[in-house]
Amino acid sequence: MLHNRDAIRQFAVCAAVLFLCCAVMVGVYAALGRFSFDVLLGALFGFIAAAGNFLALTVVVSNAADRAEETGNAAEAQKMIQASTPIRLFALLAVYFLVLRFTTLDRVASLLPLIIMQVVIRLVGFFRKDGAGK
């Protein structure tokens, strides 16, 4: 699992940038006078959920790439990646539903990291030095 150092590095960079963005988000809440403990917990939960989802994607893609390299069947690897998408989405929806239904976390601060992570992934891919992100 995760034999590809580039995949591990990309996850670490994305998680670090997401953490910084979440810190900025909490700072904006504070600047607007809307900061509370619920905002902080919501941002932390959102960070964990977004980073965990990306980690799951990274593991699946890395394993699929390893399997495609071993067998030479890229179509099977693509199917494996596509099959993981609804599973990860359902897991995220279930966790968010339970957490936001039964806790007082700030909903916006909890959901924004998912959106921010999508932007971070694209930006990190765009600025990769080896040109693989283009």
What does this protein structure show overall?
With 134 residues, the chain is an all-alpha fold. It has helices at 5-31, 37-71, 74-102, 107-126. The mean pLDDT is 89.
Task: Please provide a brief summary of the model.
The chain has 134 residues and is an all-alpha fold. It has helices at 5-31, 37-71, 74-102, 107-126. It has one domain (5-126).
Per DSSP, the total helix count is 4
Number of individual domains: 1
Beta-strand level of the residues, as a percent range? Answer: under 5%
| Helix coverage percent | over 70%
* Cα distance spanning the termini: 25 Å
Question: What would the keywords be for this entry?
Answer:
mainly alpha
List the helices and strands and how they pair.
Layout: H1 5-31, H2 37-71, H3 74-102, H4 107-126
